[in-house]
Amino acid sequence: MIAGSLRLRLLAAGAVSIVIALGVAAFGLSVLFERHVERRMADDLAVVLDRLVAGLDRDADGKLTVADPPDDPRFERPLSGLYWQVTREPGGLVDRSRSLWDEGLALPEDEPAEGTLHRHRIDGPGGASLLALERRVVLPPRLGGGVVRPVVARDRADLTAATADFTRDLLPFVGLVALLLVIASAVQVRIGLAPLATVRARLAAIRSGQAERLGTAFPDEVQPLAAEVDALLASRDRQVETARARAADLAHGLKTPLQVLSGDIDRLKQKGETAIAADLDAVGETMRRHVERELARVRRTAVAADAVAVVAEVAARVVEVVRRTPAGDALDWDIAVDPALAARIAPDDLAEILGNLLENAARHARERVAVTAQADSGEVVVRVVDDGPGIPAALVPQALRRGGRIDAGPGTGLGLAIVRDIAEAWNGGLRLGPTEPGRMTAAVHLPQVLRGPR
């Protein structure tokens, strides 16, 4: 489904990109928040460390001690997560907070420069990870001189919990942003693909005969495609015109030999050589039908976008011609067509269709032939009805095949095939039926053209 849809592929790619980008952004924001909180925590610990150093003094026995320890109550609560400790070099532990209980803070084996703050991650009571801040302080003579390393530390669990809370608060917002971005991406894809929908609509208009070219009203990215399609259509039109011209030349080239052959047939009949004349007449008819067949094939690639045929006018003209033939002179002809009814077909092609159908009807009808036409769901349905023997339903496919014959009468079996080819060239079709004895109907379906009042 996705592989066959450019829209779905773009939406899927956009959604995946948005999710990945926002996921990376959320992770980055969490890391930045953690570092920010850690810096703030270190700043707070630095203040406590300064207070701790300032509180160093001697007790009544002359021992170094923290006379004024930091007053945060967590330093007094065992294993509270906030600790301080002072050690002497050498000499070991000087003092520590009650929160350490009977444990100590194990500092790294380093020698920080005097007065410089050092930040460490160390293990604390119960294996907790601590953020520790220490400073190497050289004591004045009044405190006995020497070097001490005061350190304050805080459990990093507080930092981890704050980061987790921030991430939980961030995720709904990230989800909302993702939803909005996906919607925006869908709108962007819709707008971006709109020119392709326009191309499809205009191609449909070209196929239906409502337009001849795509035109130039497209974005710069689509215009080269439209120009190539228009160039292809122009090339096709030139090829079609060339084919039509050659077909017309072929028809005119064969017209004179066929006329000569017709004259020879008449002379043979006058001499009494009717059998030979009949054979030559059949050959001439076959040649004429084959020419008509090839002309019909040319019509399949020569559909004009603005062709319109007024059905009543064409039907009246063709009936008038067939009525004068020996077969048509003895029949009653009935035309019932709305004068305003028009079809999307060249008038000459409609005349060719009706000519073939009316010749067949005149040849098989007993007394009457009717021509009707009506609009039906955007189509014009032209029906030729005769009161002849009809065609058995099982033989209809054979009658529509090229050269298909279902009787031994005159003809080449190409008439109905030509009618079908011309109708299909104009996005229509041919149907035969009903086929019961006493009534035969040939129905031609063509696209309807709605015309305004004249």
From TrEMBL:
Domain Histidine kinase: from-to ranges: 249-450
Residues covered by the HAMP domain: 190-241
Main location group: membrane
UniProt keyword list: ATP-binding, Kinase, Membrane, Nucleotide-binding, Phosphoprotein, Transferase, Transmembrane, Transmembrane helix, Two-component regulatory system
Gene Ontology terms: cellular component: plasma membrane
UniProt EC number: 2.7.13.3
Pfam families in UniProt: HATPase_c
Gene3D superfamilies listed in its UniProt record: 1.10.287.130, Histidine kinase-like ATPase, C-terminal domain (3.30.565.10)
GO biological process: one example: phosphorelay signal transduction system
Transmembrane intervals: 12-33, 170-193
A GO term for molecular function: ATP binding
Catalytic activity: ATP + protein L-histidine = ADP + protein N-phospho-L-histidine
Protein's UniProt keywords contain Signal: no
Enzyme class: transferase
Location of this chain's protein in the cell: Membrane
Protein's name in the database: histidine kinase
Species this protein is from: Rhodoplanes roseus
